[in-house]
Design goal:
The protein is α/β, with parallel strands linked by helices and 375 residues long. 41% of the residues lie in helices and 14% in strands. It starts with a helix and ends with a helix.
Length: 375
């Protein structure tokens, strides 16, 4: 009998697989219910731009499916270069921004090399680190009673950086907390990081932040060659199913990432969809406006229920039940409402809900009110 755990490297063996939000179809099959809503994965409740649908439909046919996509993604890179005011050779395309995080770990980590990230940060950071046989150094987050509860403590992260560290992951805003970093504080942190340590600014939820909190990453990329900025089309652009993300970096680092990147990590439909999504700024504005209205309504409802919640600049809200959240999560499932339990992040008393449409938000509020009354 082969023991495959003995064949594998210790890092992957110690991992627990990433658990995505429960799909609607799985829940309904398990419980025999219909009409469920999913507020677990921070997807855009508006779907995607109509321009994306039209562009994809217009591209299909003929030899489209028979041909490999452009492995270098020249057209999408050209659009992104114009959008960011950056050279195309500084862009790395990924199968979602998650892919860029994994590529960085593959390229920079290994036995004896460490990555630094915060407690309560995106679950892929420890997964990518362990999969590359790297060492995870986890900085304690800010205290629950601080001005930014569970947020990144940049001073604590800086204290963990030594000659073994090659990579630092900074999520802004952070998932699953929604917390953010002041632009001046981030630049001060970046100034103190040795130039041979790559700092990743993960901006998956960038568009949902008020403009006054945006970090001027484009300027910082010129000033700090060890900075990488990652973005995704999965959130505000509403094409999570297409799996498109990208990294902005020094051309030398982009060259290294392209050496480990799979040659066709974006499919041809994804290229078409991403280009159309990037061009439709009105849809982005509409999505952000809907999110702001939804967040205000959710906060109002949680205040009425006497529940605390974390500050957020994202399209989700993490709230504190003050007790084990698992029974409430399970009861919400039976109501046909899927949210995200956070015990796997070390936050067993919290749940996270995506901001949905007005109707979905009301459905969640009504279900939560009933569940709390019964539990």
């Amino acid at each position: 009998m082969i023991d495959f755990k003995q064949l594998a490297m210790p890092g992957p063996v110690a991992l627990k697989p990433y658990t995505p939000g429960k799909p609607v179809e799985v829940l309904e099959r398990e419980l025999g219910i219909t009409g469920s809503i999913k507020l677990a994965s921070n997807e855009n409740p508006l779907g995607c731009s109509p321009a994306v649908t039209a562009a994809v439909q217009g591209a299909l046919g003929g030899e489209f499916f028979a041909r490999y996509p452009d492995a270098a993604g020249h057209e999408l890179k050209a659009d992104l270069a114009a959008y960011h005011g950056i050279e195309a050779e500084r862009i790395t395309l990924g199968n979602g921004s998650n892919d860029i995080l994994v590529l960085l770990a593959q390229a920079l980590l290994g036995p004896g090399r460490a990555a630094v990230f915060s407690d309560f940060a995106f679950a892929v950071y420890p997964i990518a680190t362990a999969a590359a046989s790297g060492i995870a150094r986890v900085a304690p987050a800010l205290a629950p009673d601080s001005d930014m509860p569970y947020g990144h403590d940049l001073a604590a992260m800086a204290a963990l950086i030594d000659s073994d560290v090659r990579l630092v992951f900074v999520a802004n805003p952070n998932n699953p907390t929604g917390t953010w970093i002041e632009p001046d504080a981030f630049e001060a942190f970046l100034r103190g990081v040795p130039e041979d340590v790559v700092v990743v600014l993960d901006e998956a939820y960038y568009d949902y932040q008020p403009e006054e909190w945006w970090i001027d990453a484009r300027r910082l990329l010129d000033a700090y060659p060890n900075l990488v900025v990652t973005r995704t089309f999965s959130k505000v652009y509403g094409i999570a199913a297409m799996r498109v993300g990208y990294g902005l970096s020094h051309p030398g680092l982009a060259d290294i990432l392209n050496r480990v990147r799979q040659p066709f990590n974006n499919n041809a439909v994804a290229h078409v969809a991403a280009r159309a999504a990037l061009a439709d700024t009105d849809f982005v504005d509409q999505s952000v406006a809907l999110n702001l209205t939804g967040l205000a309504r959710l906060r109002q409802a949680l205040d009425g229920l006497g529940l605390g919640y974390l500050p957020t600049h994202a399209n989700f809200l993490t709230f504190d039940l003050g007790r084990d959240a698992a029974p409430v999560y399970e009861a919400l499932l039976r109501e046909g409402v899927i949210v995200r339990p956070l015990a796997g992040y070390g936050m067993p008393q919290h749940l996270r809900t995506t901001v949905g449409t007005a109707e979905e938000n009301e459905r969640f509020i009504e279900a939560l009110t009933r569940v709390l009354a019964a539990h």
